[in-house]
C-alpha cells in the first residue's frame, strides 16, 4: 500500500471511531469544551427532544433572526442566531432545518447549517478584543491558534499528494495531474503577491518521495498566513469547516474564492468539483474494488453536504 | 437565456425540497395523529366515567351517541394514512423561498446566484440521503428505550415480562 493510501485509511479509521451518532455532543461546535450555558442549542443537545411549535424569522436592524416560539435561537456561546439581511436564503434554510425536525429524537447531524453558522457567529463574537478569555477557550483557542492548526493542512494537502504511477495502471495519477496541477499553479499565483518571492508549493510524489512527510517552505506558510489574516471571522469559520471536511487547505481556499470573491479563471470551480477533488483517490478505489457499505456511501454524502453547507454560509454577491 | 437557467435551477431546487421533506412531514403527521388519538381516548374514558356515575337510566342513554362519535373519530384517525396526505407534495414556504432568491441583480451576480441555487439543491439532496443512510445503518437510533431493553434481553435468550413497565 502506498503512503497516500495509508494516509487515507488513517483518516477513514479515525473518522469511523469519531463517528458516534446519537450521543449528546454540543450541536454547534464539534470539539469545544462542553458547557452548561442556557441556550436552545445546548438544551437540544442535552435533552435531544423537540420543545417548540413554531419557527419564525424576525427582521430587525438589517438582521434576520431565527426564533423558536418567539424566543430567539441562540448559538452554543449564547449569541443570537442571526444572519445579515443580504443572506436571506441562508436564513430561510436555517429556519427549514429547525421546522423539519420531528418530535422524535434529534441527532446532531441533522443541523449542519445551524452548526456552521453558529460557529461563524461565535467566532465573530470572540474576535472582539474585549471578549471574555473563557469564551475563547471554549471555542478552541483564538484566531492565531485556529490559523496555525489549519496551516498544517497545507503541508499534507489532499491536492498536493500524488499517487504512484503504477497504481490503477496510472489512471489515478493521470487524473491527479490533469485536475490538481492547474489548480496548484493557480493557488501559487494567488498566494505570490502576499510575499516577496513567487510561492511554490511542495508536492508529495509517492514515486519520488515514498514514505515521508511533507512540509511547505517558511515563505509559503507566511503567504498562507497572510491570506488567512485577510479573512473575516465568518469566512474563517467557513474556511475551517471546508478544510476539515476535505482535508485540504487548497479546497478551503477555492471555496472561499468562488463564493465571496470573483476568482481568476484558473481557480473557478463548482462545489461538486471541490468534493470530487478531495475524494479523487476514493473514487478510483471504489471503481476498482467496489463500495464498502456504511462507509463509502455515507462518506460520499457527508463530504458533499458539508462542502455545500459551507458554500451556502459563505455565499456573498 | 440566464432567465431560463435560473428558472430551471429553481424548479429543480423546489423538487428536491419536496422530495427531501416528505420524510419529515410524514413523521410529523404520524406524531400529530398519535397525539390526537391520545386526546380522544382520554375524552372517551372521561365520558365512560361520567356515564357510570349517572344514576338516571334515561340520562345514561344520552351518553351513547357521544361515545359512538368519539369511537368513530378514533377509528378514522387510526385508519388514516399519513403517506397519502396531499400536503406531502408541496413545499410550504415556497413564497418565502422565492422572495429570498429573487433579489434584483446584475448579469454577473445572476450567474453566481444560479450556482448558489444549485449548491443549495445539492446540499438538500445530500443531507437527505445522508440521513437516510444513517438511519438504515443504525436501526438502534430510532428505537424506543422499551424496544432496546426487549432486544437486549432477547440477545441472551430472555424475555421481558409484560407486566413490568420499562
UniProtKB/TrEMBL annotation, chain A:
InterPro entries noted in UniProt: ATP12_ATP_synth-F1-assembly (IPR011419), ATP12_ATP_synth-F1-assembly_N (IPR042272), ATP12_ortho_dom_sf (IPR023335)
Keywords: Chaperone, Mitochondrion, Transit peptide
Location(s), subcellular: Mitochondrion
SUPFAM superfamilies, sorted: ATP12-like (SSF160909)
A GO cellular component annotation in the UniProt record: mitochondrion
GO terms of biological process kind: mitochondrial proton-transporting ATP synthase complex assembly
Any Pfam family hit: ATP12
Family, as annotated: Belongs to the ATP12 family.
Name of this protein: LAMI_0G08086g1_1
From TrEMBL, chain B:
InterPro entries assigned: Fmc1
A Pfam family reported for this protein in Swiss-Prot or TrEMBL: Complex1_LYR_2
Spans through the membrane: none
Gene Ontology annotations of biological process type: mitochondrial proton-transporting ATP synthase complex assembly
UniProt GO cellular component terms: mitochondrial matrix
This protein's name: LAMI_0E04126g1_1
Source organism per UniProt: Lachancea mirantina
Amino acid at each position: 500500500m502506498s503512503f497516500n493510501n495509508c494516509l487515507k485509511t488513517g483518516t477513514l479509521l479515525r473518522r469511523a471511531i469519531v463517528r458516534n451518532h446519537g450521543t449528546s455532543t454540543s450541536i454547534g461546535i464539534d470539539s469545544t469544551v462542553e458547557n452548561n450555558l442556557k441556550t436552545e442549542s445546548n438544551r437540544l443537545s442535552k435533552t435531544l427532544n423537540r420543545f417548540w411549535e413554531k419557527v419564525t424569522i424576525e427582521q430587525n436592524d438589517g438582521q434576520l433572526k431565527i426564533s423558536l416560539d418567539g424566543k430567539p435561537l441562540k448559538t452554543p456561546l449564547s449569541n443570537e442566531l442571526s444572519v445579515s439581511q443580504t443572506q436571506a436564503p441562508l436564513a430561510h434554510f436555517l429556519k427549514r432545518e429547525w421546522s423539519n425536525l420531528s418530535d422524535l429524537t434529534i441527532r446532531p447531524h441533522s443541523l449542519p447549517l445551524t452548526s456552521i453558522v453558529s460557529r461563524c457567529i461565535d467566532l465573530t463574537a470572540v474576535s472582539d478584543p474585549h471578549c471574555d478569555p473563557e469564551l475563547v477557550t471554549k471555542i478552541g483557542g483564538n484566531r492565531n491558534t485556529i490559523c496555525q492548526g489549519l496551516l498544517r493542512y497545507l503541508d499534507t494537502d489532499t491536492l498536493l499528494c500524488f499517487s504512484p504511477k503504477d497504481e490503477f495502471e496510472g489512471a489515478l495519477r493521470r487524473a491527479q495531474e490533469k485536475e490538481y496541477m492547474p489548480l496548484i499553479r493557480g493557488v501559487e499565483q494567488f498566494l505570490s503577491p502576499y510575499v516577496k518571492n513567487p510561492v511554490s508549493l511542495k508536492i508529495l510524489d509517492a514515486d519520488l518521495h515514498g514514505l515521508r512527510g511533507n512540509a511547505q517552505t517558511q515563505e509559503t506558510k507566511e503567504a498562507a498566513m497572510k491570506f488567512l489574516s485577510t479573512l473575516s471571522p465568518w469566512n474563517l469559520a467557513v474556511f475551517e469547516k471546508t478544510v476539515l471536511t476535505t482535508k485540504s487547505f487548497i479546497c478551503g481556499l477555492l471555496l472561499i474564492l468562488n463564493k465571496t470573491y470573483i476568482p481568476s479563471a484558473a481557480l473557478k470551480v463548482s462545489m461538486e468539483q471541490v468534493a470530487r477533488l478531495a475524494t479523487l483517490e476514493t473514487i478510483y478505489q471504489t471503481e476498482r474494488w467496489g463500495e464498502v457499505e456504511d462507509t463509502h456511501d455515507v462518506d460520499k454524502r457527508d463530504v458533499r453536504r458539508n462542502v455545500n453547507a459551507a458554500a451556502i454560509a459563505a455565499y456573498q454577491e | 437565456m440566464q432567465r431560463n437557467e435560473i428558472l430551471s435551477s429553481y424548479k429543480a431546487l423546489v423538487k428536491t425540497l419536496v422530495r427531501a421533506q416528505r420524510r419529515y412531514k410524514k413523521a410529523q403527521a404520524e406524531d400529530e395523529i398519535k397525539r390526537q388519538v391520545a386526546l380522544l381516548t382520554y375524552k372517551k374514558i372521561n365520558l365512560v366515567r361520567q356515564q357510570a356515575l349517572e344514576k338516571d337510566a334515561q340520562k345514561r342513554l344520552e351518553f351513547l351517541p357521544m361515545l359512538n362519535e368519539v369511537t368513530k373519530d378514533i377509528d378514522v384517525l387510526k385508519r388514516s394514512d399519513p403517506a397519502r396526505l396531499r400536503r406531502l407534495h408541496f413545499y410550504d414556504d415556497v413564497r418565502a423561498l422565492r422572495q429570498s432568491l429573487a433579489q434584483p441583480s446584475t448579469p454577473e451576480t445572476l450567474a453566481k446566484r444560479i450556482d448558489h441555487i444549485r449548491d443549495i439543491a445539492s446540499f438538500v439532496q445530500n443531507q437527505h440521503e445522508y440521513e437516510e443512510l444513517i438511519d438504515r445503518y443504525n436501526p438502534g437510533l430510532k428505537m424506543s428505550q422499551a424496544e432496546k431493553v426487549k432486544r437486549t434481553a432477547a440477545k441472551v435468550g430472555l424475555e421481558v415480562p409484560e407486566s413490568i413497565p420499562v
